Structure formats: C-alpha cells, structure tokens
C-alpha cells in the first residue's frame, strides 16, 4: 500500500506547493518549465523509454502534440485555481474530471452506459456544481469569478488529458516513450513562452520547479507501480487514489490553510467521494 500512499501524498503536495508559490513570490511559469525538464529526466532514467518506438506508423502524433500543449496549460490553470479557489476545491475538481471520459464514451464513441455509470455522472456533476458555488466571504467578486473559471478549466482540462491518454493507449504507442516526449515538448513550449516574455530567471523558482518535478513524476510513477502491484485489483487503486486525494486535500486545505468552505462546498466534496464510490465495479 506504500505506493498508493506515496502517489496520493505527491499529488496533494503538488497542490500545497502551488498554494505556497504565491506567498513566497515564486514565478509559477518558471517552476512549471523546470518541473517538466526534471520529469523528463526522471522518465528517461526510471522508465527506460525507447524514443525510436515512436517512429512506428501507429504513433498518434496529434495526440502527443496535444498532450504537450495541454499539460503545461492545465498545470498553469491548476496553479491559478489553487490560488483563487483553494486546495480543497481544486483537488476535488481535478479528480471529478474522470467523469469527462465517461461522458465522452457514450456521447462521442457510442459506448453503452450502465445505470451505475449514469448515476455516477449525475452525482459527479452535482458535486462539481456544489464546488463552484463559492462562499461570499471567500474573495472579492472578481477573484470568485476567476476561481470559478479556473476550476472549470481544471475539470475540463484534466478530463481532456485523460481522454488523450486513453486514445494513446488504444493506438498502441509505447507509454514511457510517449510520456518522455510530452514532458520534453511541454518544457520546450514553456521555455519558449518565457524567452518570448523575456522573463528574468531566479534561483528560488528553479529550485521550486525541481521539487515540483520530483512530486509530479512521483505521483505518476508510484501510481503506475500501484497498478502493477495490484494488477488483480485495479478498482482498489482507482478508488483509493481519487478518494485519498480528495480527502487529504480537504484535511490540508481546510485544516492547515484555513480555507473557507460553505456547507454547499462541503456537500460537493462528499458528493465527489460518493460519485467515485458509485463507479466502483460490483
């Protein structure tokens, strides 16, 4: 179970680091750029990718390029959501994004939908609505609007990334090689953006980016390891990861950072966990 614990811890720690970034004047874009460079290096040394495998005709280049663009863009949205909406709601919105592939499965790809999946989607969307109803005392009207829009971006963005990774798996493209390429592309695109903006680099942001990269890759690596260890029980990994992140994010956000939640927001967190439980195969 230690693999799941580490994966959950890394995921929540990323949100905590993003929460602290603005307090300590970390340049988030620099940190995210460094993060993907570090993640690419760890991917190379730990997952043993074979880049030549991407030269196969079956490689879905449009998916890889889309992931390379979306990953840093949604990471920036996540950083903004944590800043304006808090860790609790941002982590819950990220985990609720798992319902977007389900919705796409029966609306775009013609898959049959079971009663449990339909119930899960309904509960999940209800949870998202509850999460978006911010307390009036939380921020100024402008900041509340930013928080709402960023939470929606997080939900839609991570859901779209999930769909793209599923399409990548269906195409048969090597996972580790694909991950390496998307990390490299994300880092290069962010670097190009910073160069175009003539951003002055600072050591604090780079060091934060290294830590962010370790946590970000740790989340992915130990999640994969958990699936390998519990290969006969993927439901355990799925439920523990999603419920664990929402629960830990709630405890840290509301407990440590004193994030204000209305009873509607608290209901949204509870509904998010209920929606995940409904999706567990019986």
């Amino acid at each position: 179970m230690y693999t799941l614990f580490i994966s959950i811890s890394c995921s929540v720690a990323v949100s905590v680091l993003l929460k602290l970034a603005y307090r300590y004047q970390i340049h988030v874009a620099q940190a995210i750029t460094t993060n993907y460079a570090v993640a690419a290096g760890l991917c190379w040394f730990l997952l043993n990718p074979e880049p030549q495998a991407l030269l196969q005709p079956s490689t879905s280049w449009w998916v890889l390029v889309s992931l390379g663009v979306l990953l840093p863009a949604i990471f920036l949205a996540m950083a903004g959501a944590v800043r304006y909406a808090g860790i609790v709601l941002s982590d819950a919105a990220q985990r609720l994004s798992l319902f977007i592939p389900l919705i796409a499965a029966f609306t775009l790809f013609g898959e049959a939908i079971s009663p449990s999946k339909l119930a899960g989607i309904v509960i999940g969307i209800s949870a998202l609505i509850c999460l978006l109803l911010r307390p009036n005392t939380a921020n100024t009207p402008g900041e509340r609007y930013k928080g709402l829009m960023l939470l929606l971006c997080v939900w839609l963005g991570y859901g779209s990334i999930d769909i793209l990774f599923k399409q990548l798996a269906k195409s048969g493209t090597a996972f580790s090689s694909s991950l390496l390429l998307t990390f490299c592309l994300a880092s290069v695109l962010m670097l190009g953006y910073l160069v175009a903006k003539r951003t002055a680099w600072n050591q604090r942001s780079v060091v934060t980016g290294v830590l962010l990269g370790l946590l970000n890759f740790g989340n992915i690596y130990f999640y994969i390891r958990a699936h390998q260890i519990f290969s006969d029980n993927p439901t355990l990994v799925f439920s523990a990861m999603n419920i664990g992140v929402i629960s830990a994010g709630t405890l840290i956000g509301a407990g440590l950072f004193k994030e204000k939640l209305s009873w509607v927001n608290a209901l949204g967190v509870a509904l998010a966990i209920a929606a995940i439980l409904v999706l567990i195969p019986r």
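The mean pLDDT is 89. The chain has eleven helices and no strands.
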